[in-house]
């Protein structure tokens, strides 16, 4: 019973830390609970806990973290919203800090100017800097406009 309680406590604690560290020890505790259910002595239960926890931290955690990483950080091909950030877009309705519409890869997106002091006219090319919900935050296209990206986005 000790191992099950420990496993549950560690799993609940992981919810608050989101580090993928404590959950590995919870897995070790549940494995030790399985060994206890099979009648293993306490020393073997502790060994099972230690081995499963260590292997989880050393082998499983890096794999999970690599797959949880955004595609741009991991070097994988981005998809979904991540693929849109950095894309070029055509302004279909004037874009300013409060409203606008752009076309990104054939799709219509609501847009706002990344810089609240800037506005873009119909027909201008802009670059998507960030996506917030269903709204693209855009900046002048670095290819077609001198000056390029805003500071910190280069």
TrEMBL record:
Task: Name the membrane topology term.
Answer: Multi-pass membrane protein
State any single GO MF term: peptidase activity
Q: Which UniProt keywords apply?
A: Hydrolase, Membrane, Protease, Transmembrane, Transmembrane helix
Superkingdom field: Bacteria
Q: Which Gene3D superfamilies match?
A: Nucleic acid-binding proteins
The UniProt record lists the keyword Zinc: no
| One GO cellular component term noted in the UniProt record for this chain | plasma membrane
Major subcellular site: membrane
Q: Which InterPro entries match?
A: Membrane_assoc_protease, NA-bd_OB-fold, NfeD-like_C
The chain positions of domain NfeD-like C-terminal read 82-139
Any transmembrane segments, and where? 41-60
Q: Where in the cell is it found?
A: Membrane
* Keyword Cell inner membrane among UniProt keywords: no
Gene Ontology biological-process entries: proteolysis
Question: Which PANTHER family is this protein grouped with?
Answer: INNER MEMBRANE PROTEIN YBBJ
Name of the protein: Membrane protein implicated in regulation of membrane protease activity
């Amino acid at each position: 019973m000790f191992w099950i309680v420990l496993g549950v406590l560690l799993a609940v604690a992981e919810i608050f830390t989101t580090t993928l560290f404590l959950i590995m020890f919870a897995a070790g505790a549940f494995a030790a609970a399985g060994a206890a259910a099979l009648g293993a002595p306490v020393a073997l239960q502790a060994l099972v806990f230690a081995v499963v926890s260590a292997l989880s931290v050393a082998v499983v955690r890096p794999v999970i973290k690599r797959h949880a990483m955004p595609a741009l950080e991991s070097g994988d091909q981005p998809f979904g919203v991540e693929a849109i950030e950095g894309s070029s877009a055509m302004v279909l309705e004037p874009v300013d800090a409060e409203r606008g519409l752009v076309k990104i890869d054939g799709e219509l997106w609501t847009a706002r100017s990344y810089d609240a002091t800037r506005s873009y006219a119909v027909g201008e090319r802009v670059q998507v800097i960030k996506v917030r919900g269903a709204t693209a935050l855009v900046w002048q296209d670095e290819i077609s406009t001198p000056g390029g990206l805003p500071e910190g986005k280069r």
